[in-house]
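okkk here we go again. third time trying to get the calcium ion bound version out, last two times i messed up the smiles copy paste (missing a bracket lol). double checked this time i swear
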Amino acid sequence: MNVTPSAIGVLPIPGDFDGDGQADPAVYDPIAGRWFMLLSSQSSALQTLAIGDATCVPVSGDFDADQKSDPALYSAAAGQMAVWLSDSGYAMASTPLGGAGWLAASADYDGDGKTDPGVYHPASGTWMVLLSASAYAPASGVTMGGAGFVPVPGDYDGDGKADLMVYQPGAGFWQCTFSAQGYTTSQGATGFGGPTMAALAGGDYDNDGKADPAVCDPAARIFSVMLSGSNYSVSSMNW
Ligand SMILES: [Ca+2]
Ligand SMILES: [Ca+2]
Ligand SMILES: [Ca+2]
Ligand SMILES: [Ca+2]
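finally!!
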């Protein structure tokens, strides 16, 4: 893919944008306000969407549950989440959400197959999600983590609903509040990852139906994952 690099670089975003079961490479260039994707079902032809601006970060998800990922952007500066829906000819739907200091944290929290717009506010440790199965009514109330934490939602207990997971790179600290336990208890672990390691949200690398905590350091070319199906033993890869 030839994408003109901008000053702060493009942001990779995973997804299956054509719904053929294969992941399609995609990146978002905030400076140019352009979304690029290579669709595997169309001989990896380059598709471009002129959307968003430099305040936006790309969000991954299938918001209309048609099995195709939908390009989506979150702007904390604007307090706005926008989605281009694949089953509506990529018509845009947008909603006010969060604001300055909030981080994008969309996932399927109610387990209806549709990604729910969500955000996390590190300073207060607050989660806020708009549940698709409840007409996008705002749900909040769980507080966890704090300054320096990033949201890493995913279905870590395998009940079909995303769990609230946060990661603090400094100490490699993880904390999760589980949907299967009604978000009443949380569990923590430390010493996985570190200051140079970014967390990757929600992937199930051993295919046991539970998301596996994973971190990556692109500069040092290290990827590590704690595999849920192997008692969370750490598996690493260098490239
Ligand atoms: Ca979709
Ligand atoms: Ca949902
Ligand atoms: Ca869950
Ligand atoms: Ca797993």
